[in-house]
Each structure stands twice: as C-alpha cells, then as structure tokens.
Design a protein that fits this description.
Elements: E1 3-12, H1 16-29, E2 35-40, E3 53-59, H2 62-70, H3 72-82, E4 85-93, H4 101-110
Antiparallel strand pairs: 1-3, 1-4, 2-3
C-alpha cells in the first residue's frame, strides 16, 4: 500500500540553499522508490484555510517513506530547507487498491456506542 509524505510550506525566505536542496533531493528519494506528485503547483482553497506551497511525495509503503525521511542522505540536506522554510510535514498511509469508503462507513455504523 502506498504511503505519502505531505508538506505544507508556509513561510519561505528566498535563499540559494533552497535551490541546492531541490537539486539534491531526488537522489535521496530514488533508493526508497519516492517520487514527486505535487511540487508547489497552483492551489485553490475550497474549504478552510491553506497558506503556502504544497508538496506531495509518493512511496511504495510507509517503511520506504520513513526510511527516506530518516536516511543519513536526506538528513544531510534537510537543513538547506528548514533554515529558510517553515512548514509542516507528515507521513501518511494511503488506502489499499480498490478501496471503497462505503466499507468504512458500514464499520463505523457497527461500532458500539455510536450516537
């Protein structure tokens, strides 16, 4: 089951380190099967508030996502971003192939104590 690294990058201070980080990140992703699905792109907020840029990386699974984030190679370049960009990053499991949300709804209805 795929897993994702999702980042919301809120405050960005322009600096040459950011270009270095972007240039160096792909080789840290490759050993873990990681790839960009979203990298900044135009956003349209349709509910709530969402400020900043969005980045979405896909990995084959949570093991690979965590392995990438904790890898020595990524940790080495991470300060190039974190010194100049404030944001939030999460790792999250995706859903299995052929996921049907109706199954989740049915399981919720079967739980005791449901209002």
């Amino acid at each position: 089951m795929a897993a994702y690294a999702l980042a919301r990058l809120r405050v960005r201070r322009e600096h040459p380190d950011i270009a270095d980080y972007i240039e160096l990140i792909q080789p840290t992703l490759d050993p873990f099967g990681g790839r960009f699905l979203i990298h900044g792109g135009r956003s349209e907020v349709v509910e709530g508030q969402w400020e900043g840029d969005t980045v979405l990386l896909e990995f084959p699974g949570m093991k690979e996502a965590r392995g990438w984030y904790e890898s020595e190679e990524y940790r080495e370049i991470l300060p190039l971003r974190t010194r100049h960009i404030e944001g939030d990053v999460i790792l999250v499991d995706g859903v299995p192939p052929h996921y049907d949300p109706r199954t989740t709804a049915a399981a919720m209805r079967e739980k005791p104590g449901r209002s």
